[in-house]
Amino acid sequence: MPTLHTADASPEAAVLVDGAHLAAVGPYEELAAAHPDARLRRWPGILTPGLLNPYGPELLEQAYHPDPREADRLGTEPLTGERARTLLDAAPSARGASARRGVQRMLAHGTVAVAGELRSRAVLDAVRRAGLALAQRPPGLSGPAAFSPVPLVLLPGLAAGAPARFAVFDVPDRDALVRAGAATCVVTVVGGRMVYRRA
Fold this sequence. Notes:
Elements: E1 3-7, E2 14-18, E3 21-26, H1 28-34, E4 39-43, E5 46-48, E6 51-53, H2 56-61, H3 71-74, H4 81-88, H5 94-107, E7 111-115, H6 121-130, E8 133-135, E9 166-169, H7 174-180, E10 185-190, E11 193-197
Parallel strand pairs: 1-4, 6-7, 7-8
Antiparallel strand pairs: 1-2, 2-3, 5-9, 9-10, 10-11
Helix pairs in contact: 5-6
C-alpha cells in the first residue's frame, strides 16, 4: 500500500512512497486527493531530501562508536585518535560493530547518503545494509564536525521515480534547521522504509 508522507511546516513538499521509490512528489492536498487510499504519515516540521554526511571515513573508519554496554567506561560519544584505533583493532568484529552503531547515529540525524572513500569492507557492508547512498565528497570542506555537520549538506530535490530517501526535521524552515542542527530529526526514510523514528 502506498504511503503519503507530509510535514506540517512544508505541506508543499509531500511525497507518496510506493515500495522503494517515490511515486509522486507535490503539495499534500493534491497528493491526498489523487491517492485517497494511501496510508498517511503526518510529521511535525519540514520534509527534506535528507542529508549527505561528507565525512564517512572519518566517522565510520577512524572513530569508535561505543556500545551502550560500554557507556559507563567509554561514554556515549564517538571516540577518535589513538584510543579509537586501539578499540577498533581490539577484535576482528570491533570495526564492523562500531560502524553499524555509527550508521545508526547517522540515520538518527537525517543522513541518507555518505561521502568519502570508504576502504574497510566491514564499514562498506554496514553502509550498504542500511541502504545509505554513496556519494562524492563536496569540495572545500574542512574536517569532520561530528553528527551535526556544519554546513548541513542537503541532497538535491525529491522527484517522482527516484529512490525514496528523505528525512523530516522538527523545525519551521531550512534556516531553523541550519541553526538547530541535524539532531532535530524526527524520521529518516531509506529505500521506502523508516530506518529511524524519534521515540
